[in-house]
Amino acid sequence: MSAQKPASWAYSEDFVAETDVIEKARVRSEELGCVPVIASVGAALRLLAAAANAKAVVEVGTGAGVSGLWLMSGMPSDGILTTIDVEAEHQRAARAAYAAAGIASQRTRVITGRALDVLPRLTDSAYDMVVIDADKAEYPLYVEQALRLLRSGGVLVLDNMLWHDKVADPANRDETTTILRDLGKALRDNDSLVTALLPVGDGVLAAVKR
User: Which of 125, 120, 181 is nearest to 150 (CA)?
Assistant: First the structure.
């Protein structure tokens, strides 16, 4: 690794700046105790949504709306975000953030509840993109549902897949790290997916369903 690599990484992490609305939503997220995506991860979400022309997106983990704002800025103007979170207070903050960004209320379906209760009620092969950023222990179960929901050519995105630099270290064998490491390898080796692990933020795994 060149001596310049850490500087290049820092440069790329800050390459795309937050809007004022996203910055305010991030501050609100931190006040509520939910960890928002950083700008580089948000930019990746926006890019993937735009590349997929994602008109129907499911998000597991609403937080205070930071990731949703990034996603909707990449989605077409008639795209609809279905976002699920167990915390009603977080979702109230998200709705406020969407309104502050001028996003029409009909563009979002904000569902309060456990994702594993909600996801099975959604329609098979009806979604262009599924984004997962919630309870890490349940990631494998979320992915199982996500692959059912995605159309052919749809995009699956999982955040925190490097898990604070623990996944890359085989000596780290705590439960969460092991779950994420094993899941990443399973998705990589799944012939029905085209997968990449992006060194953005805390690690973004993206996969396209064949």
Answer: 125
Closest to 208 in 3D by CA, of 120, 129, 142: 129
Give 122's DSSP letter: S
CATH number, domain at 39? 3.40.50.150
Domain that holds residue 118: 5-209
pTM score over 0.85:
yes
Domain count of the fold of the chain: 1
User: How many angstroms separate the most distant Cα atoms in the chain?
Assistant: 50
Q: pLDDT (tens digit, 0 to 9) for every residue of the chain, 210 residues total?
A: 567 789 999 999 999 999 999 999 999 999 999 999 999 999 999 999 999 999 999 999 999 999 999 999 999 999 999 999 999 999 999 999 999 999 999 999 999 999 999 999 999 999 999 999 999 999 999 999 999 999 999 999 999 999 999 999 999 999 999 999 999 999 999 999 999 999 999 999 999 999
